[in-house]
Amino acid sequence: MATSTPGLKLKEEKSKQSQAHELLKQCLQAYKDDTENLNEISELSLVLFIAAEVGNVEFLVERIHFDLDLLWKIDDKKRSIFHIAVEKRHESIFNLLVVGSIRDLLADRINEDGNNMLHLAAGLAPEEKLNAISGAALQMQRELLWFQEFIHMI
């Protein structure tokens, strides 16, 4: 009788993530070595915004390390990956901006709705983030802490 153990599944998942990360690094290096493809891979910025939406910080770090100009890319709503990270409450992605010197330049950038990062941080978190915390009081406390931390970092 076979049973699955949570620890084994977690180990398998981490192994898959590690393999995917290594594959990404190898693909980016292959593109880097072939200068004809540099423009093509830079144009695939849609993947950046998807990674920012779902909170895939490892992917973003690798892509940005490969091409720093990607920090300046904006989506069709005039949002950078950091605007998306703030909106979706992905602190690990936002923290990449905090350690960089471009923070001030990107923080003031306005999206198509006329909002900068401060406005996005003040907005309500996505429902899936709120539902991860039980109780309205704890949800409100988490949102307040997020906003205070955001103001402190900016």
Automatic annotation (TrEMBL):
It comes from the Eukaryota. InterPro entries: Ankyrin_rpt-contain_sf. Gene3D superfamilies: Ankyrin repeat-containing domain. One of its GO terms (cellular component) is membrane. PANTHER family: ANKYRIN REPEAT FAMILY PROTEIN-RELATED (PTHR24177:SF292), CASKIN (PTHR24177). This is Ankyrin repeat-containing protein.
